[in-house]
Amino acid sequence: MTWQILLVLSVIMLMMVGLIFEWARPDLIVFTALAIFLLTGIVSPEEGLQGFSNEGMLTVALLFIIASAIQNSGIFNRIMVNVLGKKSRGTLALLRMLVPVSGLSAFLNNTPIVAMLTPVIRKWCEDRGISASKFLIPLSYATILGGMITIMGTSTTLVVHGMLLKNNNEGFSFFQIAIIGIPATLIGLLYLVTVGYKLLPNRKGREFDRTDNSKDYLAELVVEENYPFINQSVEQAGLRQLNGLFLIEIIREFEVISPVRASTLIRKGDRLIFTGEVSTIAELQNTKGLRLDPASDISIEQLINAENQVVEVVISHQSSLIGKTVKTVNFRGKYDGAVIAVHRHHERIRGKIGNIILKPGDTLLVLTGSDFNIRQNMNDFYVVTPIANPFISKANIKKGWFTMVTLVITIGLVTCGFLSMFKGMCLEVILLLLSRTITIEEAQKALQFKVLLIIASAFGVGAAITQSGAAEWIASGLVKVGQPLGTLALLYIVYFLTNLFTEFITNNAAAVMMFPIAMSVADAVHVDEIAFALIITVAASASFITPIGYQTNLIVYGPGGYHFKDYVKVGLPLSLMVMVLTVTIVKFVWIG
């Protein structure tokens, strides 16, 4: 083992530990690993930065824009409400949901699909007294399975396709992976509506906690005539920097002021609604002219009016809020929403709201203002509560259908070989911009730069694994262990390692790290590279066992009221089925 191999393996080990324990945002961790390889000369700037111009990565960026155009139209929401129906229940309703969802995810990024449909399905379940926990994990799993049907179904497939092209390989054809994806989807859906449905918990999600524990979230003080700061601002009254408490709303006769600004004036008779560490309200109660109303039965539902809503949002893996406090990010000023509470792993975080450091997967209870719909950003968080959206109109629905129709035509051109995948998506985005289906500003907002940075940086990390000799060194070890047992054993080993990585780090990083190793194994045993590329693609996508391995699993974690063990119980059998199916098909179709 050379010092280059030792350095590369050490850095990658640290990178993986950092990703698992969330030392920083994933994009920063992967980019830092790449920077180390550049600074130490393991890779040249051309090799290390190749991912920033890779066709697969750029195609992913274009797909973000296309998905945003469909998401903004609200067309999926209407379709899903009609698909679920008014009278269907149980496994029938589940099947009616899973079939179209898996079909849609074959042609669109699965993350926005799950983000769009989670609040719709929660509302549908709530209206019928059905537990959303029976539907949300299957929603996530169905999009993952459906994403394995085409080259554009997941970013992972496009990334591996891009790496194959760089290796002077033809890459995947549009439906090549469907040989595995369609059987895997059919078997997976059958499992989810039978055995999986019985294994899923039957419990209420976060909404149950929200309505039943209002007194844990809220406290109310009444302003009396002897309060010394009447007609002065909130900041002058010293209510802006309280120990453990946060002023989120003022109720004044028939007027509701929310979110409360520093310049808001305090009037006699105002009802001040605080959130945070409610137990510390006694200290504020001792202030002259502020009276705690013992008869107060203020609830979160009472905060809602024509302009304000209470919604739940889940912090995404690529959020710019990660590692920062609610106060530091100026959540109220940035998104026009006041954070009422923060939950992590089904437990409410106690203490002053403004001092809580946010992490991926945190669920925030937010009292929104009138501008929240405009300011919200899916790059930072996913809204998992149904919210009224005044911008979903007939015109938007028409834009949604235009996007769908032109996308189908473009896919047809790609499938027939008239255009490459990248050129086809370029054409689609140009059509959307020229037709004003999406604006330049909306397209820029849709680009998830942190995800793209992970993918681009991971290409450089993969180059370091190859250039240092680490890929060949690891591959020779795998071949020594697996070759005596046959090629089938090697396929299982590569699949297992990739799938293990993807459960604890990002799927794209797992695919890019394992790709050079898999290619070295393929060369060593004289097997078609496409065979091992397909193994890597499916294994990196098929993340069913943990909520942290795949973005869609994280989105439904809190809203479904799930525990970590629920993913293991339901996802492990599915993961094993997909692994056996994939390896078997690859062995007999591509190897023989």
Automatic annotation (TrEMBL):
InterPro entries: Cit_transptr-like_dom, DASS-Related_Transporters, Na/sul_symport_CS, RCK_C, RCK_C_sf. It comes from the Bacteria. Keywords: Membrane, Repeat, Transmembrane, Transmembrane helix, Transport. PROSITE patterns: NA_SULFATE, RCK_C. It is a multi-pass membrane protein. One of its GO terms (biological process) is potassium ion transport. Residues 206-290, 298-384 form the RCK C-terminal domain. One of its GO terms (cellular component) is plasma membrane. PANTHER family: BASIC AMINO ACID ANTIPORTER YFCC-RELATED (PTHR43652:SF2). This is Sodium:sulfate symporter. It comes from Pullulanibacillus pueri. The lineage of its organism: Bacteria, Bacillati, Bacillota, Bacilli, Bacillales.
